[in-house]
């Protein structure tokens, strides 16, 4: 039975709720993971999601910044709202969701962007990003006979040369610097994650709009999973 997960950096869920409602009506994913919701939990537009048919909602939000949410048409169970780097930022949420005969542990991440200067010695935002990804080493891809793991979100790193429009021109641009791509690969290996998108689309270049300026960097939303998921022939679609 097909099971679909959508991920979207919404950059204010309340401001863009009409767009979200239209997206849900058009594509009807089983689960939608949102990042940068910029909304405290008590102001999250629960009624709008329920009206759209998404009765099950898990939220980890804060006022004005960051925030993640996972909404679903089927029951979900909150597993963890983890705080990284010893601060109160809401950048992670994990839930269990049933997908046919399997249970999926679904992680929703919003990794720090890292600022503009790719030097951790002079840019604390970039240092924070590297420390955050290093802590993600402790997020393993759990799997069992009836359990799989999936990690999605705005990870703010385009890890492969084929993920960007120009590898050489972006080597010194935050999101594709060697230190970031190396840290991402170390995290992926440490957790035994598989890059599901690149298994399905191994060589095709891809890029996604970046930020309010519309700057195009590369494949920043990413889906990784366990080996048992890669054997189920996942497909990907970019809106």
What does this structure look like?
The radius of gyration is 17 Å and the shape is globular. Helix 3 runs parallel beside helix 4. It has 6 helices and 12 strands. The longest helix has 13 residues, at 178-190. The strands form 3 sheets. A 6-stranded mixed β-sheet has the order 5-6-7-8-12-9. A 4-stranded mixed β-sheet has the order 1-2-4-3. The chain has a two-stranded antiparallel ribbon with strand order 10-11. The protein is an alpha+beta fold and 239 residues long. It has a domain at 111-239: Endonuclease/exonuclease/phosphatase (Deoxyribonuclease I, Chain A, 4-Layer Sandwich). It has helices at 17-27, 46-51, 124-135, 178-190, 196-200, 227-230, and strands spanning 5-9, 31-35, 56-60, 68-72, 76-80, 92-99, 102-110, 147-154, 194-195, 209-210, 215-216, 221-225.
Sequence-ordered SSE layout with sheet pairings:
Layout: E1 5-9, H1 17-27, E2 31-35, H2 46-51, E3 56-60, E4 68-72, E5 76-80, E6 92-99, E7 102-110, H3 124-135, E8 147-154, H4 178-190, E9 194-195, H5 196-200, E10 209-210, E11 215-216, E12 221-225, H6 227-230
Parallel strand pairs: 1-2, 7-8
Antiparallel strand pairs: 2-4, 3-4, 5-6, 6-7, 8-12, 9-12, 10-11
